Every structure is written in C-alpha cells, then in structure tokens.
TrEMBL record:
Keywords linked to the UniProt accession: Membrane, Transmembrane, Transmembrane helix
Protein's name according to its UniProt entry: Putative Holin-X, holin superfamily III
Keyword Membrane found: yes
Species this protein is from: Nocardioides terrae
Membrane-traversing stretches: 62-88, 94-114
Entries under InterPro entries matching the protein: Phage_holin_3_6 (IPR009937)
Pfam families reported in the protein's UniProt record: Phage_holin_3_6
Length: 146
C-alpha cells in the first residue's frame, strides 16, 4: 500500500511513496501480533477502569445526596407518625393508635422492599465505550487472521 506524500516542489501534487517490503520472519510477525494483542487488552482494561471510576464518582455523589435526603425524609416521617399517633389517641387508647401507625409503616416497607428488589433485578450496568471498542478490536483481530 502506498501513501501519498507532498510534492517537495510545491506544485500541489502528491507523489506516491515507494512500497515498503516487510522483511520480518513469520515468527517475528506472530510475536508482533501477540505483543499488539497484549497491549490492546491492557488498553481495554485501562479504558474499562477509567470509565468505571468516572461512573462510580458520579454515583457516589448522587448516593451521598440521596443519603442526606433520606435522613431528612426519615425525620419528617418520624414526626408525622408521632402526629398521627397523637391524633388517633383522641378516639382510642394510645397503644392501639401506635399499633395502627406501625402496621401502616410495615405495609409501606413491604411494598418498597418488593419494588426495590424488582428494580435491582432489572438493572443491567453496561460500559458502552468499552463494549464498542471491544467489538472493534474483535473485528480487527479477525481481519488480522485472514
């Protein structure tokens, strides 16, 4: 395969470079291919690690914010529950009011647990860039084999 090179005379035309013959032995070619594949695999692993670190950083920040929101929400629900117990205490014994509020929270917890478990089962974390480059690498490797 020839590569065009710029014309040194400045006429704007491109001259074809002379073809380069490969004088390597078959063993050297296989060695080079093995080295290239090894380097390619290492690069893919580095890409995957870099991509995972970036995604983990984003997820960590979001998790921290959600944790703070969860704590605030917990406090709101705690005091709302106490308000409900005291409101129900106006028409029934205190122990029964507390039991009713506890039962309502037990039902809510069960529904959230089932929904959360279902969402986790459906999740499928993917690394799109890594997957794409792996596909390209596989195509390149197949082309080298032919």
């Amino acid at each position: 395969m020839t590569t065009p090179t710029p014309d040194p005379m400045g006429t704007g035309e491109h001259l074809a470079a002379p073809p380069v013959e490969d004088e390597r032995s078959l063993g050297e070619i296989f060695s080079d291919v093995a080295n290239d594949l090894s380097m390619l695999i290492k690069q893919e692993m580095e890409l995957a690690k870099t991509e995972m670190k970036a995604e983990a950083k984003k997820a960590g920040k979001g998790a921290g914010l959600l944790g703070g929101a969860g704590l605030a929400g917990y406090m709101v629900l705690l005091f709302l529950s106490l308000t409900a117990v005291f409101a129900l205490d106006e028409g029934m014994p205190l122990w029964l009011a507390a039991l009713i509020v506890t039962a309502v929270w037990a039902v809510i917890a069960a529904v959230l647990a089932v929904t959360g478990r279902s969402a986790i089962r459906q999740s499928n974390p993917q690394l799109p860039k890594t997957q794409q480059t792996l596909k390209e690498d596989a195509a390149w490797a197949r082309a080298q084999k032919n």
